[in-house]
Design brief:
2 helices; globular; mainly beta
Amino acid sequence: MTALLLLTLWLTAVTASDGDPAETAGSAQAAPPSPPAESPAEAANGSGVDAAASEAALRLEYRGFVAGAPIGEAAVSVALRDGVYHVSGDARSNGVLAGFSRWRNRFTARGRIDGMERRVTEFSYVEEDRDKSRRVVVREGELQVTKNGRQRPKRPAPGFPDVISALFVQPHCRGDQTVHTGRHVYRLSRLGRDPGGCRYVVIDDDDDRFEFELVLVRRSGLVVPKKIVVYGWLTGWIELRDTTELAGEDI
């Protein structure tokens, strides 16, 4: 399976493929989203952001596991001011992968919150593993991929929110939605939801399927992922590492 998801930030370290991106990634059209489900995650103003949090900034730390074994860690910063958001992060392999992988992914997403929608202005990441590197930039409707220093022709960018914006900016349990990692597109169909999260079946652009579960928590006026579980031939998950500064309310 290609790049299981930036959704899981570093689970790509054990599932990523070096194949070319699917040709359909930049040309698929988004289906109209289902009306969002009411939940505590969609706080007072209905956007997953508390009404009082017109300005908010926090730093989150995550740990990754596959079959219970540690495989990576990530630090993610989320900032919101006057409806404009900026998410940046740095994920890397460690634990049982340390002996044969030096995978690292540095990513950023910028945009504006418009009601229930995210208007993405830029999404990018740099992925490295030993002697391999890939830089992906989505900006002004174009996708630019640079692999091992060689720049590939620009293509139209996917017409959906990027996965980082979808995860860290007003996340909520939409019925169906589509996200992208720049190179790949993922269609999500909701299987069910609980007060604190939801479960989806995910179909990638190779028509491979897997399920994932998203658990949400409120921190400093923002709703963010507490745990993401990917169910496949091995179950992997990332979970928020709580600190005193991040103590908050589960939803």
